[in-house]
Amino acid sequence: MSMRPLLGLLGVLIAAMSSEFNDTVTSTALVDIRGSLGIDYDAGTWIESLYSAGLAIGMAFAPWCAVTFTLRRFTLYVVAVVAASTILIPSAHNLQAILILRVIQGFAGGLTIPLLMTTALMVLPPPIRLYGLAVYGLTATFTSPFSASLAALWTDVIGDWQFVFLAALPLGALAAVLVWYGMDPGEPEYDRLKLFDWRGALLIILSFGAFTTMLMQGNRLDWFNSPLICVLALVSSIAIPLLLANEWFHPLPLLRLQMLLRPNFAYAAIALFAFVVLSASSTVIPTTFLISVQDYRPVQAHLVTLVVALGQFLMLPAMAFLLDHRNVDARAVTLLGLALMLIACLGASSVDATWHRDQFYVWQALQMIGQPMVVMPLLMMATNTVRSHDEGPLASALINTTRALAVPVAIWLVELIERWRGALHSERLVDQIGLNRFRTMEAHGLLSQNPAPSNATGSLERFAEAVTQQVHVLTTADVYLVMAALIVAFMTVVVILPERTYSPRILFAKK
Fold first, then answer.
1. Within a domain: residue 273?
2. CA distance 245 to 266
3. Nearest-angstrom CA–CA distance, 18 and 16
4. In the chain, what is the greatest distance between 2 CA atoms, to the nearest angstrom?
5. If DSSP codes are grouped into helix, strand and coil, which group holds residue 356?
6. Which residues have C-beta within 8 Å of that of residue 237, sequence separation ≥ 6?
7. What domain range is 305 assigned to?
């Protein structure tokens, strides 16, 4: 095999990483963006939620478009759209322009990531396909935490939030050159446009857009006390069943749902969804704790995520090498990886107000080892069910759409736990402190007195800060315990659903 397809795959990887970096830069620099444009917090949340909606929609469209317009041509187009939308954001002077650009940026980013799996399945032969899937695994385990750390470093060191967006230029240019040189031009299949799934496309936009926006905005708008959330819930409940019915019977669907009837593919879709949710235990939770409780700057807090990110360069190829042996059962590897993640979540649930970065490193190291042990087997199980060259893009569409929908679900779950458990812990702490104070005053005969110390305001502020800090600590511990419970449920699915399979090199050599 020549090096050109590998260079093309590298170009798609850089494009996917560039898209992830562009999103993370916006998230990290959101405070600066809001301050520069005079945007309040509520309006700023739409910058995030609209990106997530565009991301989910784009992932469903990408593989179909790649086959229709050729993989190289469509990838170059997507790289150009990602770079253009990202560079235009710093020059936008009002919220409306930024929101429009964020939808375009999210949609283009959603188009990019599935192309990596599609490319790996279409251009890599079975003997090395598993290592190509390890490259795709980088987008699930490496790109997000590394991009968050790099974006935090740039915004902290450079300071000018507009300047950091210029990173889109060299990354996009390099990706475009590698894709142009490394990919086969191919022949477009414009006849597929006659069978384009227009109803499915409209239902994807309605259902995914409404569902992700509902999850991202629900906590801020107090859920079903908000008319907007009620409308989004109604649209989702109607559009999603219609989408599933349409995709099942359409002759050339955007999402081939029949593939979910294959046990290993169904397991992979469920597992990747669960994995994305569980990955919050190694990224969002520790960084949020350090920023909220210990007043870390983002660049300081994100150092704990680098343990997980940088370790993937070693672990993902190592897992591909391990799974490439006949006597290695991918299900056993998955269970061992989940066990390590479970230990990490249980260990981190002992968090208290004295924890800093050093206390997280051991548990982050376990996550770094365990996560690729889950990702690589599920990618192998999913892609081994692909029965023909034409099914590769269809598999990529389903797997990546599931992944995109898991991101807002993870955010919703963490916010739900923080809201419910945070309110409970706050009430209990205040009640307990009040009761103890009452008993102390009663024991000293001070209940009839009305002292008015001069420092009462300062004492109340310190008291409120102490309660808030402890609520953050207790809630963080609860989130870790919920993640541990989800891992146990995940392990049950691994035992029941998937069937044993072998690496592509071994499996397809038999045929």
1. yes
2. 18
3. 5
4. 90
5. coil
6. none
7. 4-188+252-421+470-510
CA 424 from centre of chain: 28
Instruction: Characterise 222 by phi-psi region: left (phi > 0), alpha (psi -120 to 50), beta (else).
Output: left
C-alpha neighbours within 13 Å on the C-beta side of residue 502:
12
Spatial neighbors of 499 by CB under 8 A, at least 6 apart, are 263, 264
The answer on pLDDT for 118 being more than 90 is no
Structure tokens of 66? 């790649």
Residue tagged 């496309």 (tokens): 201
Beta carbons of 53 and 106 less than 8 angstroms apart: yes
Distance CA 174, CA 257 (A): 36
pLDDT digits (tens, 9 = 90+) for 372-415: 999 999 999 988 888 777 788 888 889 888 888 998 999 899 88
CB 215 within 8 A of CB 412: yes
C-alpha–C-alpha distance, residues 53 and 208, integer Å: 6
- Domain assignment present for 146: yes
* CB contact at 8 A, 21 and 150: yes
Give the CA distances from residue 219 to residues 274, 292, 475, in Å, rounded to whole numbers and listed in that order.
21, 18, 16
Q: What is the DSSP string of 13-80?
A: HHHHHHHHHHHHHHHHTHHHHHHHHT--HHHHHHHHHHHHHHHHHHHHHHHHHHHHH-HHHHHHHHHH
Q: Do the domain assignments include residue 375?
A: yes
CATH at 497: 1.20.1250.20
Residues 6+ apart with CB under 8 A from 254: 60, 61, 64, 197, 200, 201, 204, 247, 397
Strands, E, within 329-416: which ranges? Answer: none
Domain count within the chain: 1
Whether the CB-CB separation of 281 and 370 falls below 8 Å is answered with no
Q: Is residue 202 part of a domain?
A: no
| Euclidean distance between CA atoms 427 and 432, whole angstroms | 8
Q: Which residue has the tokens 């739409």?
A: 46
Residue 80 Cα distances to 13, 18, 176, 180, angstroms: 15, 12, 8, 12
Q: Where are the alpha helices (DSSP H) in 158-262?
A: 168-182, 198-217, 227-249
CB atoms within 10 A of CB 452: 5
Q: How many other C-beta atoms are found inside a 10 Å radius of the C-beta of residue 124?
A: 20
The first and second tokens of residue 424, run together, are 């409970």
Q: Measured between alpha carbons, how far is 347 from 354 in angstroms, rounded to an integer?
A: 15
pLDDT band per the 50, 70, 90 thresholds, residue 336:
very high
**Torsion angle, CA of 301/305/307/310, rounded to 10 degrees?**
-130
The Cα 179–Cα 10 span in angstroms is 8
487 band by pLDDT with thresholds 50, 70 and 90? very high
